[in-house]
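A reminder from the course coordinator: this example appears on the midterm review sheet, so study it carefully.

Given structure:
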């Protein structure tokens, strides 16, 4: 009994003191999520599946409404950034569809500069979101139409010029295409586990994570690094994880002005699906992966054999970690 009490007390102390885990090198205070209009914790599971209709031939049509807007956001306590956004948030909405869906993305530019939506997927040249094919001026509207393929973890971003500035200012987001199990009969169970809305998928704890950074002085060097925009957000508010259910992370790197970002998981290893376009891992049992800008992938792991507690994750560039890109998984017996 005494040992159990000591363990409980030690665990409580560890949770109370988790902010010292990286030398207490982090921002002081809290960001006003309500003023920002988005919450990094809610972003983890906030999938935009659009409006679904059926054509006369039975094919699924999925329509998304996206706006381009200028908006000042708080990226660290008291630090404001003049962003260009999709739907008023950075990153933009995490769009999710099923392989084979016909997609219609209605893009309206309410911003002060020309903008577009370039999707990493397969589509025609006229739907590419580059100058002459979907870049529109303020006040204009464009409808991108294409089939959702291939399945995987993709992204979208503005491709107006100068490209570095449009992306760095916040115009990017996750674009996930779930596999259609009927198209993959040899691995139908795996495909079902990725298909949002299935019982197999409900067993997973899925998260959308976008690694990004901000050059607040506009000198081509980043002052703050983050996952889902707000520096140190998941260090100050650890992410609750049920130790009995597996975790799947859809991860994309959109960091500008640095050639590579990374993801390192403490005290555990994961399987990695580069680009997410395979149903078998491209890397097995690793604890660190690197991504160049626009690279992305799916991470799968479990804490089933771990004791409850706080487990760190972060970029393995120490500078990035200390300037904001670090967090904790709060592994518990069950998430209420």
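Designed residues:
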């Amino acid at each position: 009994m005494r040992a159990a009490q000591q363990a409980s007390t030690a665990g409580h102390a560890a949770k109370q003191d988790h902010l010292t885990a990286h030398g207490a090198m982090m921002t002081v205070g809290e960001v006003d999520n309500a003023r920002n209009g988005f919450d990094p914790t809610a972003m983890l599971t906030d999938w935009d599946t659009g409006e679904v209709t059926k054509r006369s031939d039975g094919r699924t049509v999925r329509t998304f409404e996206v706006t381009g807007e200028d908006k000042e956001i708080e990226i660290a306590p008291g630090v404001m950034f003049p962003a260009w956004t999709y739907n008023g948030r950075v990153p933009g909405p995490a769009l999710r569809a099923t392989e084979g869906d016909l997609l219609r993305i209605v893009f309206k530019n309410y911003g002060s500069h020309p903008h577009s939506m370039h999707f990493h997927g397969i589509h025609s040249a006229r739907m590419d979101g580059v100058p002459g094919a979907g870049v529109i001026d303020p006040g204009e509207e464009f409808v991108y139409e294409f089939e959702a393929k291939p399945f995987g973890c993709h992204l979208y971003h503005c491709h107006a010029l100068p490209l570095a500035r449009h992306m760095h200012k916040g115009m990017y987001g996750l674009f996930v295409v779930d596999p259609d199990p009927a198209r993959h009969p040899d691995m139908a169970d795996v495909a079902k586990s990725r298909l949002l809305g299935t019982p197999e998928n409900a067993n997973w704890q899925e998260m959308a994570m976008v690694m990004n950074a901000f050059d607040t002085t506009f000198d081509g060097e980043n002052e703050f690094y983050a996952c889902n925009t707000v520096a140190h957000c998941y260090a100050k508010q650890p992410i609750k994880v049920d130790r009995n259910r597996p975790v799947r992370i859809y991860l994309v790197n959109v960091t500008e002005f640095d050639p590579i970002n990374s993801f390192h998981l403490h005290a555990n290893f994961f399987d990695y699906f580069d680009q997410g376009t395979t149903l078998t891992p491209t890397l097995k049992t690793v604890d660190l992966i690197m991504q160049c800008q626009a690279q992305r992938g799916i991470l799968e792991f479990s804490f089933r054999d771990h004791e409850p507690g706080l487990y760190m994750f972060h970029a393995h560039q120490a500078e990035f970690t200390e300037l904001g890109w670090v967090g904790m998984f709060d592994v518990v017996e069950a998430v209420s």
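Residues 4-10 have pLDDT under 50 and may be disordered. The chain has one domain: 37-332.
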